[in-house]
Amino acid sequence: MDLFQYDFMLRALVGALIIGLAAPALGIYLVQRRLALIGDGLGHVALTGVGAGLLLNRSPVLVAVIAATLGAVVIELVRAYGRTSGDLALALLFYGGIAGGVMLVGLSDASSGSLNAYLFGSLTTTSRTDLITIGVLGVVLLVTMLVLRPALFAVCHDEEYARVSGLPVRALNLLIAVGTAVTVTIAMRAVGVLLISALMVVPVAAAQQVTRGFRSTMTAAMALGLFAAGAGVWVAATADTAPGASVVLVAIGSFLLVALAAAGVRALRRRARADRVTPPSEPAEHEVLLR
């Protein structure tokens, strides 16, 4: 039986594909800045927004966007101006966010299943409103990351050089922080708060095994993210597994296959290069005597 004939499975597939395309487009900038785990911290802040949305009977996704955005701005401001390190600020928001989310969900009339849906993802319960929110935010995020790619790459690669070049470094850093918050929020429905960083980082890590330039790495990461999202939903539909976990495991499996293939290709190239530069062997002693 074709499960994709049902509306809820189609919504799950479309939502996963949007997230699979948008998450690596932002994740590559986080990997470049060595902030691969910031998605986990903002995911826990977004959980507070989910709890507030459930308590106030508002859209949890929209409220989570606001909460995660505020958290991202606070982290960036603390990193830029405060005496507290960025890691410490991230840790404070990490623990405060998840504690606030659990408390607010407990105060609301929602069941524990609602909390688990956001902790571990629940694509099959994505409503039409959630899908519209994911689609709009995903498209805006993707277009922004592609259009501003040169400036964002300059800031992530060398912030001092970008500042000397006249780029608005502070505004671009805030844009990356807000973009991370948006990515975390829309990916929350696909893979859950606890697995968000994987969808932003693993496709980028896999693409880095076989590409060299930033643009080619970004393109390959988006393609791998799209594949992992689609294949993960298909595996979940056929094997009756959790969609979020299936998407992440497919992404990790793709990384392992790409890494092994890339290592094999590099080994063959080294061997071929060594064969070309190896000098011819000296004639044997009995051959010299015969001459």
From TrEMBL:
GO terms for biological process: response to zinc ion; transmembrane transport. Pfam families: ABC-3. Keywords: Membrane, Transmembrane, Transmembrane helix, Transport. Signal peptide: none annotated. It is a multi-pass membrane protein. It comes from the Bacteria. The keyword Transport applies. This is Metal ABC transporter permease. Belongs to the ABC-3 integral membrane protein family. The chain crosses the membrane at residues 12-31, 61-82, 88-110, 131-154, 174-207, 219-239, 245-268. It comes from Micromonospora tulbaghiae. Its main location: membrane. It is found in: Cell membrane; Membrane. GO terms for cellular component: ATP-binding cassette (ABC) transporter complex.
